[in-house]
Protein 1
Amino acid sequence: MRIGVLARAAGVSVPTIRYYESAGLLTPPGRQGGQRIYGGEDLKALRLIRHCRELDFSIDETREILASVQRRLPCSETKTYAEKHLGSIRKKIAELRALEATVAALVSGCEATCSGSAAPDCVILQAGVANCG
Amino acid sequence: MRIGVLARAAGVSVPTIRYYESAGLLTPPGRQGGQRIYGGEDLKALRLIRHCRELDFSIDETREILASVQRRLPCSETKTYAEKHLGSIRKKIAELRALEATVAALVSGCEATCSGSAAPDCVILQAGVANCG
DNA sequence: GCTTGAACCTCAAGTGGCTTGAGGGCGTAG
DNA sequence: CTACGCCCTCAAGCCACTTGAGGTTCAAGC
C-alpha cells in the first residue's frame, strides 16, 4: 500500500502521514524505489491515531497511548489518560463559560448604556477611550 | 517612560510589547539613545489591547477594535465585534460539551466492560488493538 | 573617570499540529 | 518516449507569544 492509498483509507492527508512519522507516531515503513510501502498494521495504527486526535488528545498523549497499546498494557492505563483529559476538557469549558458571561454582559451593558444617547462610558471599552453613541 | 516601566504598568512582559509593535498594534514610539520612550497614550492603548486579549479577541480583531476606537467610531461597531465573538465562544463551548460527553461515555463504558474480566473490546480503543483487563 | 549591573536593543528559533509550496524523482499507460 | 499522476525532501507559514544569544545604553557607586 502506497502513502496515497493509506491516506484515503484513513481519511487523512498525505503530508499529515509524513508529519506523524516525523513526530514519532508512525514507525517508518519499508521503501520500494524510495517510496513508502505500508501494511495493514500501519492502517490500524493510523486509525487509532485519528481516533485519539478526534478526541482532542495531544500528539504527546497520543504517542503515550499508542506506546501503551503496543506494549499491550491493560486499558486501565489508557483510561487514566482519558480521565485526565476529561478533567482538562471540563476546565476549558468552565473558562469559556466565564468568558461567555463576561462578553454577554458587555454587549447588553453597551445596549443599555449607549443606545439612543451619547453615553460617556461604553462598558465594552473600559479603558475609557471609547466614543459611545 | 521606558519599556520596562510600561510593561509593569500594564502587566505584560517586555518582549510582548515589542511583539505588539511588530504586529502593528502599538505605534512605534520615539527613541532616546536607541531606547523606546513611551507616553500616557501608549499605556492607554496597551491596556485596551490587554483588555481585548483577556476577552480572547484575536490579534486581528484587536487591531480592528483599536482602529475603530482611534477613528472615534461609535461603539455600536465595536459591539458588533463583541457579538460575533460571542457567537464563536458559544460554538466552541458546544463543541467541547459534545467532546466531554464522548470522553465521559468512553471512561464509564470502559469501567462497565473491562473491570474484573478480560474483556475483548475496550470502548476507549475502538480500533480493536487494545488488550483489556 | 571607571566599573558594575540592570535594563535595553536586535535577530533568530521554539511552541503545536499541521498545511502549503518549490523543485525534483518514480511508475505506468499509451 | 512522452505524458501524467503520484511520490520524495526540505522550507516556510499559521497564532501569539516566549526564550535565548550576543551586544549596547544608562544610572549609581567609588
Protein 2
Amino acid sequence: MESTDNTAPVVGAGDPSTPAGEGASSESGESAGTEQRIFKAATEVFARKGQAGARMREIAEHAEINPALLHYYFRSKSQLYEAVFAHGFKQFMGGLGQSLKADLDFEESLRTFVHGYIDYIHTHQDMARLMLNECTCGGPILERYLTAAVAKRDEMPGLMMEDRIVAAIESGEIRPVDPQHTMLTIVSSCLFPFVALPTVRIFHPEAADDFEAFVEGRKKHVVDLLLSGLRPAGSAE
Amino acid sequence: MESTDNTAPVVGAGDPSTPAGEGASSESGESAGTEQRIFKAATEVFARKGQAGARMREIAEHAEINPALLHYYFRSKSQLYEAVFAHGFKQFMGGLGQSLKADLDFEESLRTFVHGYIDYIHTHQDMARLMLNECTCGGPILERYLTAAVAKRDEMPGLMMEDRIVAAIESGEIRPVDPQHTMLTIVSSCLFPFVALPTVRIFHPEAADDFEAFVEGRKKHVVDLLLSGLRPAGSAE
DNA sequence: AAACAGTTTAACTATTTGATCAAACTCTAG
DNA sequence: CTAGAGTTTGATCAAATAGTTAAACTGTTT
C-alpha cells in the first residue's frame, strides 16, 4: 500500500543503527557492499557540503555506483542523510560512555575522556564535521536526537564527564570552577582543531607532515594545560 | 566588450571590502540600501547552508527583494559568496590587530585577545559560521585569503598572539608550553561555543535566557583557566 | 516636460536536481 | 535448466535552480 510495491530493502529507514546491518545480508546479486560504499561516500559528501549542498549524483560518483541505487537503498536524500547522521550520533555517544564508568581519579578520568575524544574525532573527521554542520545550522534532526540523549544522562559521555568535574570540585581534587564552561572548553579544545584541520594545516605545516605526532601532541597538551589550570591553589606540581 | 553593456554596479567584484561602498552611492532610483540588505541576507543564508546549499531565491526572500537584483548587484552566486567572505575575512583580521599592538604584559595581552575575540564572534555569529564552514570544507577561497594574510604576519591577530606567547615563555611570565597548541586551545575555546551555539543551548538553557551573562561568563572562565594553566610552577595565586 | 541614468520587475531559458520505472542482469533454489 | 528474488542499469520525469533580458519604473537634470 505504501507506494510502489517492489522488493526494496531500505534499511536506513527502519533501523538507523549500523551502516549495513550484516544480520540481514541477503546476498544474491553480488551486492559487494554497495550499501556500505554508499554510506561512506554519503558521509564524506554530506560532511563537506552539508545536507542541502550535497548532490545525490556526487555521492553516487564518489561511491562509484549508479545514482538510482541511492534511492533503492535509502529511498530519499533526507532518509540517507538521517541514516548517516543517526549512525554517527549513536557511535559517537556509545563509544566513550563505557570507558568513563570505571572508577578512576579525576586526572585519569580527564585523560581517558580527552584521549578517547580526540581518538574518535581524528579517525572520524567526516562524521565530526557533519555533526558540527548540524550544530551550526541548528536543524531539527540534531535537536531531536540530542534531547532524547540528554534525557538518559548516564549514556552521554559529555554529561558524565561534567558530573565528574562537579564531584572533583566537591572532593577538592580540583579548584572550584564553572563545570559547564569547563566542559565546553574541554570539548572545544578536542573538537575544533580537527574540524578546522584544513585551516590548521596552513598554520601548522608539520601537522600535515606527521599527523600522528600532531594528534599525540594535541592529547598531551590539552590534558596538561587543563590539569594545570584546574589544580587547587597551593598544591605544587 | 565584457558581456552585455548595460549600466550595472557590481561592486562585489572590483572592491570586495565594504558591503556597500558608501563612497560611490549614486542615489537615484531610491535604492534604500538594497545592496546592504542583500549582503546581510546572503551572510545569514550562506552561514546556515554553505556556498553549495544556499539558494539565491532564499537569499532574495530573506532580503525581501526581487531575485534578479542579486545578479544586478553581484553578477553571480560565486561572486556574491566571495564578496561576503572577503568582507568578513578583512573585518575579522583587522578588528583585533590594533588592540594587540599596545605593549601590555602577558596577562593583559591574553585578556585583551580573548575579550576581543569573543566580542567579535558573538556579535558576528553568522560570519563566524561561514568562515568555519569554509575551514571545514577546505575550499580554495579560504586558502587563498589565508596564505596571503599569513605572509604579512603582523596583521594577523592570531599569529601576533602566538608571538606574544613565545615572548612570555622566554621572559618567564608563563611556563614553557607548546605555543601553537596553546594558541589553538585559545581560539578553540573562544570560537567553538558560539559557532555550535544551537547545541550549547540544549545543555546550557540559561545561555538562551541571559545571553549577555553567558558571554561575560565565558570570557572570565577562559581567561581564568588559561592563566592558571600557564602560570609558572611554584608561583602562588 | 523631455531626456536620461540608475533601479526594479516579471517572464523567460537552459541546466541541474531528486526521484521513478521498466527492463536487464545475477545469483541461488528447486 | 528454469523460476524467481534480489540487484543494477539507462532512460525519463517534474520540479527547482542559476542566470538572462526587455520592459517598466524612479528620481534627477536639462
Protein 3
Amino acid sequence: MSDSLSITLDRSSPVPLYHQVAQQLELAIRQGVLAPGDKIDNEIALANTLGLSRPTMRQAIQTLVDKGMLVRKRGVGTQVVHGKIRRNVELTSLYDDLAAAGQQQRTEVLALRREHADETTAAQLRLAAGDDIWTLHRLRFVNDEPLALLRNHLPAALVDLTDVDLASSGLYEHLRRAGVHLRVAEQRIGAKAADDQERELLASGDVPLLTMERTAFNDAGSVIEYGHHVYRSDLYAFEITLVDR
Amino acid sequence: MSDSLSITLDRSSPVPLYHQVAQQLELAIRQGVLAPGDKIDNEIALANTLGLSRPTMRQAIQTLVDKGMLVRKRGVGTQVVHGKIRRNVELTSLYDDLAAAGQQQRTEVLALRREHADETTAAQLRLAAGDDIWTLHRLRFVNDEPLALLRNHLPAALVDLTDVDLASSGLYEHLRRAGVHLRVAEQRIGAKAADDQERELLASGDVPLLTMERTAFNDAGSVIEYGHHVYRSDLYAFEITLVDR
DNA sequence: GTCAATGCTTTGTCAGGACATATTGACGTA
DNA sequence: TACGTCAATATGTCCTGACAAAGCATTGAC
C-alpha cells in the first residue's frame, strides 16, 4: 500500500506548498489511486521525498483529515477512509448541485428589483428599514419540471445585480466573481405544505415542500444574503457529509 | 478592544496547551467578554503574555477560525465575528437539541431487538445479509406531543444494546460512552407525506414530515449506524451553521 | 489638495529540532 | 501457552527562527 504517488511541487508558484500537496493528495484519493483502507507513507518519509519540512507535510495532511478523507492514528500511521466526500455542504447551492449531476436545467427570473427594505426584511439583513436592497425571485426547472422557488434578498450596498444574467449562472457564483466572499451561513431546513402561489408555480399538487432559510455572512460578519427557498420534495433533497472533530 | 482576558494555563495537564487556550477563548466569546467586532491582540503579543510560542498560539486561534467565530486578516489583525455558533451540526442529534432547548421530553422505545439483517439493511450497514444487527424504533415526545419517529439499525458486533435505557438518554450519547467514536456521517434531508403508520404514531394529520436518512462511520470507515427518521415539520426543523473554508 | 511611494504592523508560510505518547509486535519468562 | 515487558514506529505537541506578503497609515512630491 505504499505510494506510486507522483506529487509535483512548484516553489515559484504563489500557491502555498502545503496546499499544492493537499490538492494532489485529494485528487489521488478521489480518482482512486489511493483507495479507502490504503495507508500512506509516514509524515517524515513523505516530507523527505518531497523535499519539505515535516510541519508543512503535516499541514497538508491535516487539510484532508479535516475533510474526513484521511484518519491519523498515533503510532500506526495515516489511512484513507473515504474516497468520495460530498462537498462539505460548502454553503449548499442548488445550481452547483444540479450542474454537477449533469441534469438539464434552466432558471426563470420572476422578479429582480431594487427597493427599500420593509421592516421584516431589514431585520433579516441586519439593516435599517428603508435601506436599499435587492429582491430576487427565481423559479428553477430540471428537465422542464419546476423544482424550486428561490426568494432572496441582498443589501444593495454590497453588490450590483443590474444586468446580471441570473438565468444562466448561480447567485453564489456571481457573488464570488464580484469579490464577495462567504464565510459563515446559518441554515434552517424544514418542510411544509404548499400555499396557493407555490402550488401554482411549482405545480406540486399535494407534494410537500422542503424549505430552506439561509442567512449568509461575509468575513466582516455582515449579512450578504437572506434566502427563503422551497423545493419539491419528490425531486430534491439535501445531501450533506458531516465531519466530527 | 484590548483584552481583559484572563487565560490560565496548566502545563502539567494532559490537555494540550493550544486546546486550553482555544477553549477559554471560545468561552470568552460565547459569554460576551469578547463581542463581535472586537479585535484580539496580535499573535505574538498573546503568545508572549501567555508564555507560549507563536505556532502554539496560532493553533489555538485557528481552531476558532475553523469554527467561524474568528476571522484573521493579514496586516490587520484577528477579529471576533460570531458569538453564537450553533454546534457545527456535529452530527445532529435530536435528543441533544431538545435537551439544550430545555423542553420537557420523553422517549418511548417501540422496538429493540437483535436480529439477522435482511438484504436491504445489510447493504445500508455494509454488512452481509444475515449478519447480526440491532433494530431500534423509538417515538419521541415533546411536551407530550409526538414529534419524531426514529428508526435505527446498528451492527451488533460494534455495540451491545441489551439493557440499555434508550428512553432516558440519546443513542449517540450511549455510543460515545461505549467508546464508539463517530467521525463522518452522510445525511440526506428531505420531506414527504406521512404514510398510515406514521400518521397513526405521530398523529400528524396532514402535516408534512421532514425526513432524515443518516449513515454514520467511525475512524476505520466502518458503518456504525444507519438511521431513517421522520419529524413533524410543524414542530421541528434542522438548524445548521456552515463555515466555508 | 491629490496621489503615489514608503514603512510599519500583522498574519501567512516554511524550516528544523526536540521530546511525549499511543500502538504494535517481538521477545522472554512463568 | 499465556502473559508481561520492551523496543521500534508513527503521530502529537511545542519550541525557535526566518522571511514573505497584505493592509494601513504616514509621508512626501507634484
Protein 4
Amino acid sequence: MDAAKILKKRGLRITKIRVAILETLAANLQALPYSKLQKDLSRFDRTTLYRTLLILRDKGFIHKALEEKGESYYALCSNCTSSMHNHNHVHFKCNRCSTVQCLHITNKLDLSIPKISINSIEIIAKGTCSACLLAD
Amino acid sequence: MDAAKILKKRGLRITKIRVAILETLAANLQALPYSKLQKDLSRFDRTTLYRTLLILRDKGFIHKALEEKGESYYALCSNCTSSMHNHNHVHFKCNRCSTVQCLHITNKLDLSIPKISINSIEIIAKGTCSACLLAD
DNA sequence: ACATAAATGCAACAATGTTGCATTAATAAT
DNA sequence: ATTATTAATGCAACATTGTTGCATTTATGT
C-alpha cells in the first residue's frame, strides 16, 4: 500500500501522520481502537491525530467501524469518496478477544418503515470470531 | 407509569433517582441523551446517575439505544430482565432533529456468516423522522 | 425503632473531545 | 532552487464523560 500515492491521487497533502495512520490501519485486518492509534502514533500530538482522523473520515479514506464504551474503532474504507460513503458491510465485534472487523456481506438488507425516510443502515453484530472459536 | 411499583416487583430498592430516571424516560417517546438526563437530574450527583444507569441497564430496565459522538442515548426496555435482554428493534436517529427512537419492526433479520458465531445483532438506521418530513 | 446491607455524595483522576493560536511544513508559482 | 501561500501541526487550555474509593446516608426486613 502506497499511502502517499493514494493521498496525492485524492488531492490531499502528503503528511507524516496521514501516511502513518493509513499504513497503520492497512497493516491490520481488524479495525483499530482509538487508544491503539494513540499509542502507536504517540510521536504525533494528540490534537493532530484527532483532527487528522476527522479529515480522513470526511474525505472517505477511513470510517468509524464501531463506537462502544466511549471508544471508537477505525478502519480503512474500501470504496468511499468525499461525496459518497457506502459502508454496506457489517461491523463485527468478538466478545472474547474484543477485536472489531468489517465483514463484507452479500445479503442485501432492506428496511422500510412507514412515514420515515431512511438514508443509511448500520449493522453491528457481536459474537465469537473464528480465531476464538478455534481456540476452544 | 408507577416506577416504584415496577422497581419493587423486580426486587430493586425504591430510591429517588431510580424513580426519577424511569419517569423521565417514560415521559419521552424518544431515547434521551446522557446530557439531557444529566441536566434534568442535576439535583442528583453525577456519579450516582452514572452508577444508577449501570444498574438499571444491568437489571434490564433500560438500554443504551445509541452511542454516537461520545454521547449515549438511553431508553426504557420493553421486555428485558436481568438475565434476558432482547432488543429486537431498530434504533433510528433523525439527521435533522437528532432525536433517537426505538422502532419495533416485524421483519426478522437473519444474518449468518461462515466461521463466526453471532450472538446479537444491532441495527442503527438514520434518516428523517416523520415530524421532520412533515415540517418540509 | 433498629440493624444491616445498599445506595448516595464527594473527591479525585483518566480518557477523549474540542477550540484558538502561533509555528512549521507542504505545495504551487517563479 | 527559492519564495510565497495555504494548510497542517503542536501546544495550551478547557469541557464532557467515565470510573473508583470511601465516608455518610438511606431503604428495608425484623
